Predict the 3D structure of the following.
Amino acid sequence: MNISITVNGKIHTHDIEPRVSLAQFLRENLDLTGTHIGCDTSGCGACTVTLDGAAVKSCTVLAVQADGGEITTIEGLANGDEMHPIQAAFKENHGLQCGFCTPGMVMTAVDILKNNPDPTETEIRHGLEGNFCRCTGYHNIVKSIQHAAEQMKG
Amino acid sequence: MIPAKFEYIKASSVGEAIDLLEKHGFDAKIVSGGHSLIPAMKLRLATPEVLIDIRGIAEINTITEEGNELVVGANCTHHELTINPLVKEHVNVLAQAAKCIGDIQVRNRGTLGGSLAHADPASDYPATVLACDATIVVQGKSGSRTIAATDFFQGLFTTALGEDEIITAVRFPKVTKGTYQKFFQSASRFAVVGVAAVKDGDGVKIGVTGVAGVPYRATVAENAYDGGSSCAVHAVDGVDDIMSDHFADEEYRSHLAKVYVKRALEAL
Ligand SMILES: Cc1cc2nc3c(=O)[nH]c(=O)nc-3n(C[C@H](O)[C@H](O)[C@H](O)COP(=O)(O)OP(=O)(O)OC[C@H]3O[C@@H](n4cnc5c(N)ncnc54)[C@H](O)[C@@H]3O)c2cc1C
Ligand code: FES
Ligand code: FES
């Protein structure tokens, strides 16, 4: 089946099987391996990307369902060489250890801050309910998002 | 994990979706948010040969006020229900229940219609549609009909929805005051117990999900309501299909039901 998806500002047209997940499509057809597949069962959030501006678990969206949509992956967040404020905040605040969960954390943070530019710590923690990190204990991830919120308020 | 092969068709109207359902019969399944169906397909618990995607049908993605009712389209996502001003004003208990579902990503994809059609006994919405005395609007080959919430849920993953029918909307009578209280399963975040309570004049209507195989109205407790919360002891009276599993056995679930009905009444 032919689909056209805009990924990180660029239109991609591919002929794929309907059973291919968006995560698989991004990684295998577009070589965008920043989107990680942790559980492949909608639990861990590592595969989070934004679809038409909203964070989704791309392992649980079929690529054909995203036909005509706009995707941003972790690779599309920076402005050239300049990191997105959320990426910069993760770097600054040591918001990662092994980094496996990080693309999903960052893309979820994009959604959290879009809907709530000035979140409390509790709201950030609730916002991350669908994202697992096996390394950090979450503290520095939360701190990173708090820091990003401050930066983005300007 | 890759689902079995299937054909995928995007329906552009309710009429087209119903025609496709009729044409493909048992081989076909509707998909909306996909957040119950796709995981099941990956596990090959579901192996539809044709997937009819109704997500893009705008006519069932609206929220409108009609007299004393709020008509919520089946395609509205959980997220939309948490932020929509009409929902917050007129059926705030629905916004509260939506907010308890899964996580941000799940709420961005999953829909009201999909959740009701799926009828997971641990899902959140049934308590609210029951407590609100909502009606489910469905459409099939022979036209449109409405099903009272109390008649809609029939068993585990079983509803009154016909094979060729889809849910188009849910009609919620406006609520003066309501609350949803949930005991989260600690790993899945589904409801071990979910209780919606809604004021009804001097009385109260109480919907309970998670406790029994079929979500129910706690009518014995409702009838014993005296403005306080003591009637919560009757939360499971007359209920004979209380679930028991490794998260919560029957005794613990029954206890939780009473505690959460009490909390709901106290929060009203
Ligand atoms: C990680 C995770 C956590 C979750 N946590 C919760 C939770 O805490 N509480 C909770 O209640 N739910 C939870 N869910 C389930 C979630 O709410 C689903 O979105 C919902 O159950 C199904 O809605 P959907 O639109 O995704 O339906 P789909 O998956 O698209 O469809 C589900 C079923 O309904 C049918 N269907 C869909 N739309 C219609 C329609 N309009 N008319 C007729 N049939 C239709 C389909 O054919 C299918 O059989 C969770 C899901 C995930 C993945
Ligand atoms: S890989 Fe998608 S949620 Fe874990
Ligand atoms: S940094 Fe290793 S899983 Fe989060």
Observations:
- Residues A 37-40, 42-47, 57, 59 surround FE2/S2 (inorganic) cluster (ligand 2) (CB under 6 Å).
- Chain B has three domains: 7-53, 59-173, 178-267.
- The longest strand of chain B covers residues 191-200.
